[in-house]
Amino acid sequence: MTLTEKTLLRLGIRPTVMRVKMYQYLKRRQSAVSLVEMEKTFAQKGVNKKTVHKTTFYRTINLFMEQGLVHQIDDGTYIAKYALSDRSHIDKHDKDLHMHFHCTVCGKTLCLPDRISEKSLPDDYEVSNANLVLKGVCKSCRKNNKDEEASAVDQGN
Ligand SMILES: [Zn+2]
Ligand SMILES: [Zn+2]
């Protein structure tokens, strides 16, 4: 049995071919992904040599969310995006609460590594989900911008 299959089973998810592929895909990604993007990628790769039905993605992602493996991010673009939750330090009393960063140039949304403490909540309040999104320009877009500025100056001289 592969590590992925073990991870899924541990979370009570039966590791079908499609679920394993989707988990691995999400794991490889640096940024959150929309269902449409996911469908496109899988269509290009020709997974299982047949078209995967839209509802399969939808059902799989919902199952992953129910089991706490994936979380949905609303980054203000009206398109829901999904990313893997960090299950490494999660127990029953602890959730993977963190902020997100949305780049207004390339449109990418990513999970930030620092976790938000549930201790900031008053007693007897329970948080189930955090959807904080910081907006700005990501590292690679900033770099591209600087390069462009530099070449513009060169041409000016
Ligand atoms: Zn960017
Ligand atoms: Zn996240």
Number of helices: 5
Ligands bound, unique: zinc ion
pLDDT < 50 stretches: none
Any idea of the CATH topology?
Arc Repressor Mutant, subunit A
CATH class: Mainly Alpha
Rg calc: 19 Å
What is the string of SSEs from the N terminus onward? Answer: HHEHHEEEEEH
Which shape, going by the Cα principal axes?
globular
Return the CATH architecture.
Orthogonal Bundle
Beta strand %: 15-25%
Helix content: 25-40%
Number of domains: 1
Short synopsis of the structure:
This is Transcriptional repressor. This protein has helices at 3-10, 17-28, 35-45, 54-66, 139-156, and strands spanning 33-34, 70-73, 81-84, 98-103, 109-115, 133-136.
What's the topology here?
Blueprint: H1 3-10, H2 17-28, E1 33-34, H3 35-45, H4 54-66, E2 70-73, E3 81-84, E4 98-103, E5 109-115, E6 133-136, H5 139-156
Parallel strand pairs: 4-6
Antiparallel strand pairs: 1-3, 2-3, 4-5
This protein binds zinc ion (ZN) (2 copies).
The site of one zinc ion has 6 residues, from strand 2 and strand 4.
